[in-house]
Design a protein that fits this description.
The structure holds 2 protein chains of 2 kinds.
Chain A: H1 2-8, H2 17-32, E1 40-46, H3 50-55, E2 64-70, E3 76-81, E4 84-87, H4 92-104, E5 117-122, H5 128-139, E6 140-143, E7 146-149, E8 153-156
Parallel strand pairs in A: 2-5, 5-8
Antiparallel strand pairs in A: 2-3, 3-4, 6-7
Chain B: H1 2-9, H2 18-34, E1 50-51, E2 64-69, E3 75-77, E4 80-82, H3 87-100, E5 109-114, H4 120-132, E6 137-144
Parallel strand pairs in B: 1-6, 2-5, 5-6
Antiparallel strand pairs in B: 2-3, 3-4
Classes of the chains: A alpha/beta, B alpha/beta.
Chain lengths: 162, 153
């Protein structure tokens, strides 16, 4: 009875159900394992151990010191570039940036800043975001979508006590 | 003529599957391509400080080691959470491991992913610990942003 029925039907019915099952399984797997990766970037710092630093040849240009002071809550309390106090106004890192830029004199061409070294001396409890902002201010700027390098050598002073 | 006969034989209407399968394949293809198999160590709870200058490295680091510092000031290294004091022994182990494979410790890059509210002193302590085992290259990781961080509070 059954055989005669299939025999009369010469067109093969494609079984969609298992295929769709598997395809949905795959889809769910890929959706589950999907992870949005935010773009992240790095600031490269070369800092050998303190013992090696003393034996290294001192560079011709003196190290510029950037002092970041913090209040009790870890917020920025004051910025000193060399001996110059810059305060802690909202745009203080803009000032630091302007100072560094005039110091490096990027009009004379790139590469002039390669010898200049900046040492960041931050208070122990200063929030890390401020340190990154300081590094951003001294390491370069973006103008017309192009990245300009200012100071390449950044290092940290030995940490201050709590 | 045929149509009427077909309908009589299969009374239930069959929907057209083709557009649905097209779409589902499109979706699968999208998620397959977007899937990142690289085992990036990115702890999602860490809120990185943002910077408009942070750029992804041009070439991948030779020997990247990721040290993550959480908001609670614990260190995540090699899938383990530990207080900063214990990082030294973990780093020593890592350095020994590298030396047995004839790799120079000074060639390795320590990628530091620290939360923006963490104390700078903690980050410096982590750097010091790494320096003790002769690591030299560090990369401070930050989130890329379009706004300048020079102005503002």
């Amino acid at each position: 009875m059954k055989i005669r029925h299939t025999g009369s039907d010469d067109k093969i019915e494609l079984q969609m159900t298992p295929m769709i099952d598997i395809i949905f399984q795959l889809l769910v797997f890929f959706i589950m394992s999907f992870k949005i990766i935010l773009p992240e970037g790095d600031f490269n710092i070369r800092m050998p151990a303190a013992a090696d630093m003393r034996t290294s040849v001192p560079s011709e240009t003196p190290t510029l010191r950037l002092r970041l002071r913090a209040d009790a809550d870890g917020n920025l309390a004051g910025v000193f570039l060399g001996d110059q106090a810059l305060g802690n106004a909202p745009g203080v890192f803009g000032q630091v940036h302007a100072q560094i830029r005039s110091l490096v004199g990027d009009a004379s061409g790139p590469g002039t800043a390669s010898d200049q070294e900046v040492e960041i001396e931050a208070d122990y409890n200063l929030k890390y975001a401020n340190t990154i902002r300081a590094i951003t201010a001294i390491s370069g700027y973006i103008e017309n979508g192009q990245r300009h390098q200012l100071i390449e050598k950044v290092r940290f002073a030995p940490p201050r006590e709590e | 003529m045929r149509l009427t006969r077909n309908i009589r034989r299969w009374p239930e209407t069959q929907g057209d599957m083709t557009p649905m399968i097209d779409m589902v394949f499109q979706l699968i293809a999208f998620f397959m391509v977007a899937l990142n198999f690289a085992d990036v160590e990115q702890e999602q709870s860490i809120n990185l400080p943002s910077s408009e200058l942070a750029k992804p490295p041009d070439v991948a680091y030779e020997e990247p080691l990721t040290v993550q510092i959480t908001r609670e000031e614990t260190v995540l290294f090699g899938g383990e959470e530990m207080p900063p004091e214990q990082l030294l022994s973990a780093m020593r182990r890592e350095a020994q491991f590298m030396q047995t494979y004839d790799k120079k410790v000074s060639d390795a890059t320590v990628v530091i992913r620290a939360d923006e509210s963490v104390k700078t002193g903690i980050v410096q302590r982590v750097i010091e610990i790494c320096q003790e085992v002769q690591f030299e290259k560090f990369a401070l990781r930050s989130r890329q942003s379009d706004e300048s961080t020079l102005i503002g509070p």
